[in-house]
Amino acid sequence: MDRTRGALVEAIVGMREKEAVDLARALLDAGGDPLELLDACREAVEAVGQRFEKGEYFLPELMLAGEILAQISGMVKARVAAGATAREKRLGRVVIGTVKGDIHDIGKNIVSFLLDANGFEVIDLGVDVPPERFVEAVREFEPQVVGMSCLLTLAYDPMKETVRALEDAGLRDRVKVMIGGAATNDQIRVYTGADAWGKDAAEAVSLARAWVGR
Amino acid sequence: MGQGRGRGGFPGSGLGGEVRAMPAENRNGLSADQKYEERFRAWMCPANVRFATPEAEKSYKQRAQRIKDVIELKKPDRIPVCPVVGFFPAKYAGITAREAMYDYEKLGAAWKKYHQDFLPDSLASCMLASPGNKVFEILDYRLYRWPGHGTPPDTPYQCVEGEYMREDEYDALIRDPSGYWMRFYLPRIFGALEAWGLLAPFTDLVEMPFTSPFLVPIGMPQVQRSFEALLEAGRAAVEWLQAVAAIDAEIMGTLGVPSVIGGFTKAPFDILGDTLRGTRGIMLDIYRRPGKLLEAMERLVPVAVEMGVRAATTSGNPIVFIPLHKGADGFLSRENFAKFYWPTLKAVLLGLIGEGLVPWVFVEGSYNQRLDFLADPDLPRGRIVWMFDQTDMVRVKELLGGVACFAGNVPVTVLKAGTPEEVRQYVRDLIEKVGQDGGFILATGGVVDDAEPENFRAMIEAGKEYGVYR
């Protein structure tokens, strides 16, 4: 398994889709442990995330890694009974969403994917998320981190309103709030009252890691 | 303008509220430079704008000449101040985005107020804010959501990301782009045209015995209904054009502001990546079917050129707006940019310039890792405007100074969350660093939907004050 595991990780990180999927299938066919297989995938996707962080990988590589992961997870799920894929302990929990009035989700999805690959439990509220929905989710899931995404400049005020809604609900000091999106910067971080701004998905992961002490 | 928010419309077309047939092009035999001069002569004296006063006409010519000068890398009397504006005039006038899209009277009043109060050097066409809501309702447009149709009343229209072109359809697109659009793409993005999947391509019509069979699908009830919807949409589009073109023409004629958007086209990578394959689809295609992707983009080059040329010819305005989306830093590696994004964009630019047009390229996001591509020696000097968002403007001047006009980049963030003094500082600093030698336009870094009016005013005033060449 070890040698095959290494080859699988390398194939995923090297963006060799067919080879990676074939190796995973062969591993399962030979009676390999599905959970270890998934673990190898996570290791690979984390390495892909690191390359993204270093500016060596870009969107095509993130998207393809996500695709390979989805195919292998699908094969695993088809073979093991429900519940057998018990999750390992997570680093922390992040509630994330694109704020009210904005329906763009590409950036948010990339952040969710990388957070998940880096061991966070991500509760993705989707797009056009009103402040009260963020508040409810923070109450329900008790995350350490709230992530707000936007593309439009008209989303600055909804971001600000969301931070205020968390304050009004008495939840603001229980979470760290990060914002991101093409039209954001540190000035908008100040304007909205968020704790931090990240310029890309890699920075979102670093911020979340720092906040949960990893 | 963010990713997937590419906006259509050809502002300035049919000015004066008349709908004209496309004028025939009589420029055969002219060189690109001769075509350029001829097109700009027409733009300087717009046939369809009635100037209210001699002063308005004088201001128009002065402003247009200033823009022509900076395109040609000259130093006019001062730097032109050309903010790129989306729904800001609506917000400023206190109407919602929905009102701006649905009520032409309110739209007109708001856009006139914006131009009167701020006096920018270029027109913010109301065609961008109000692209004709009735048309989209009639056609059941699924590619976008707009105020009252999926977004709140005070939020502008937004594109719905999706895979509208399937991964196995590259060959169909490459074989016959128009046929692909008609029979595969349109039925997915317009609910009312779903039945067009039944149509045969028009290229069937080559002999008498093939003609009636071609027409049979058109006789089917669902196809008949789709054509009825299309006819109704066409009538609504004429109504729309008459309303919005009259607003634009009045603003141009009373205040003397030229339009700097005579047409619109896109980079082939963005045509496919924004609204056909979607971001996810096109990024995966780079790995899974790079050959097909390259072939399809090559096929779309003449399509994209023709789109820009036709619009600019119809509008009598030689500047063609091209927003760049998915080739920015962070999206693609330099290698993939060089292989997948740049060659066909460059071909489109050359095609437009060859017809005497000036591409006004809005470089969204940042291009710090690939700025050198834009200084490509194959691109003629002084025939492009590069408008920047978050790219380092000092490097822009180093690379493009004396090569092409560049514009930018007052951030929308400072216009919203800063103070007038901060805005003035930004403008002053920018002009000191990169605006000293001409060939420069002061513009916003993004499309302004939301800003503090005092900040917006500070930008315009500071631009006019610090931008004077002595």
Structural write-up:
The complex is a heterodimer of chains A (214) and B (470). With 214 residues, chain A is of the alpha/beta class. Chain A contains nine helices and five strands; from the N terminus they run H-H-H-H-E-H-E-H-E-H-E-H-E-H. Chain A has a five-stranded parallel beta sheet, sandwiched between helices. The model of chain A has no long low-confidence stretch (mean pLDDT 90). With 470 residues, chain B is α/β, with parallel strands linked by helices. Chain B has a domain at 32-130 and 245-466: TIM Barrel (Alpha-Beta Barrel), CATH 3.20.20. Chain B is 52% helix and 8% strand. In chain B, strand 6, helix 16 and strand 7 (385-388) form a beta-alpha-beta unit. Chain B is globular.
Précis, in short:
The complex is a heterodimer of chains A (214) and B (470). Chain A has two domains: 78 residues, Methyltransferase, Methionine Synthase (B12-binding Domains), Chain A, domain 1; 120 residues, Cobalamin-binding domain (Rossmann fold, 3-Layer(aba) Sandwich), CATH 3.40.50.280. Chain A has 214 residues and is of the alpha/beta class.
Tags for this entry?
heterodimer; A: 214 residues; alpha/beta; Methyltransferase, Methionine Synthase (B12-binding Domains), Chain A, domain 1; Rossmann fold; 9 helices; B: 470 residues; TIM Barrel; six-stranded parallel β-sheet; three-stranded mixed β-sheet; 9 strands; disordered N terminus
